[in-house]
Amino acid sequence: MVTYQLKKTPGVPLYEALYRCLRGDILDGTLKPGQKLPSKRALAEHLEVSKITVETAYSQLLSEGYIRSQEKVGYFVESVERQAPPPAPAQPQPDPAQPEWLLDLTGTGTEQFPFSVWSRLQREVMLDYGETLLLPLPNQGISVLRQAIARHLTDFRGMQVDPESILIGAGTDFLYNLLIQLLGREKVYAVEEPGYGKIRKIYAANGVACVSAPMDTQGVLPEALGGADVLHCSPSHHFPTGLVTPVSRRLALLDWAGTDKWIIEDDYDSEFRFDAHPMPAMQSLDRQGRVIYMNTFSKTLAPSIRISYMVLPPALMDRFRQELGFYSCTVASFEQYTLARFLSRGYFEKHINRMRKFYRSRRNALVSLLETCPFAGRLTILEQDAGLHFLVKVDTRRTDRELETLLASAGIRVHPLSAYFHDSREDRHCLVVNYSGIREEAVAEALKRLSDIM
Questions:
Q1: How many angstroms separate the CA atoms of 190 and 187, rounded?
Q2: Rounded to the nearest 5°, which phi and psi values hold at 141?
């Protein structure tokens, strides 16, 4: 008789321990094909366990094909193809140490998030909706959130939007991928040059042709779009230059779109305009139904709140329902209901107003420090009074790469403007300063280090 000594392992039932032991012996050849196993009663008595324990272990082996049962005879080992034991897993290597920056001018801030209001609304949603939160969602997103977004766009962006034209998704990345499927991979997509490199990567990952859309001081040049079918642009506040496209250029781009091309209006951090009310969206000027408006709450609330949305022209929404209506909504109903209340009760407006004051103060403090630092004569600040970043022109003979390395040696992380060009790596001696995530107390120390170096 095969003998076993079962060890009691916390959390592992006896039948599971016996099953594992027998399976291991079958796989390593200790138990040969055709070999008869002890009867359930005999093995139970030998191991001093219940017959049920042995019966359950045998049943599991039988269902997985490791043994076979012959009526009134017993259980026999099946022929199982032996596999070489897997190699021992490599010891996990610790993640490479990330540099600790004194001043990071590339990050995103999370200060001033309205935790108390948000958590109170979450509790309300749990109490009011209960098990409804577990039910399937409409693929466009819940109705109350789409209605709240439509009212917000009317009040603050000058847009007349039907809630049925709004599609909610978990981040703009997901929505870009949907749009590519909706508009077609055979089309040529144009992206701003310079521009946010991730957009180009998403298009490339989807196998679509992507070209650069040259810009001047007013935004994208319509006459330079060539054979593009789709233009991806951010007219309200361009990244990284900060340009705001005037209405005359917006109308020219709409003329370019005509009735057979598309414009994806990425309304990048348009809420943070300090000198005036945000400009009306290009979508509000569209009379041909060619503008697809996109925005996200990740920038205005927190990066981890992955709630974005797009407003599709009616014809395109009809096509979505017919061709892509099988997609499920990717944002949990709990978060959607919470955000709907945050918008409809006016908390979002209050939050944006508070953040405008907060970021204006932070920006002014940073600009003041730059203007009074020992090497201020070599700096020219270029700002559009909008958004959460501005440009700083540096009077230097160093290359952009050398300048970036020099700043890194002082503990300052910042990217040069040339890093956002795809077709040209020309040195522009210009830095993109994102101040939303900085610690103000670190700015003075960073500038002191730079003074010593420069």
A1: 10
A2: 110, 165
Contact 312, 141 (CB under 8 A): no
Domain membership flag for residue 93 = no
Torsion of CA 19, 22, 27, 32, to 10 degrees: -150
Per the listing, tokens 């945000």 go with: 278
Q: Are 385 and 275 in contact (CB under 8 A)?
A: yes
CATH code of the domain in which 21 resides: 1.10.10.10
Say whether the peptide bond before residue 86 is cis (omega within 30 degrees of 0): no
State if pTM tops 0.85: no
Q: What angle do CA 116, 117, 118 make, to 5 degrees?
A: 95
pLDDT, tens only, 237-291: 888 888 889 999 999 999 999 999 999 999 877 777 666 666 789 999 999 999 9
Alpha-carbon dihedral of residues 103, 104, 108, 113, nearest 10 degrees? -20
Considering its fold, how many domains does the chain have in total? 3
The answer to whether residues 192 and 215 touch, using CB atoms and an 8 Å cutoff, is yes
Helices 347-372/440-453 angle, 10° precision:
20
Alpha helix (H) ranges present in 228-313?
Answer: 247-257
128, 184: one domain: yes
Which range of residues forms the domain containing residue 237? 115-346
Size (the chain), residues: 454
One domain, residues 154 and 248: yes
Please tell me whether residues 318 and 274 are part of one structural domain. yes
Q: For 415, list phi and psi in degrees, rounded to 5.
A: -105, 140
β-pair partners for 379:
394
User: DSSP string spanning 24-91?
Assistant: HHHHHTSSPTTPBPPPHHHHHHHHT--HHHHHHHHHHHHHTTSEEEETTTEEEE------PPPPPPPP
Over residues 319-333, the pLDDT tens digits come to 999 999 999 999 999
Contact of 249 with 213, CB cutoff 8 Å: no
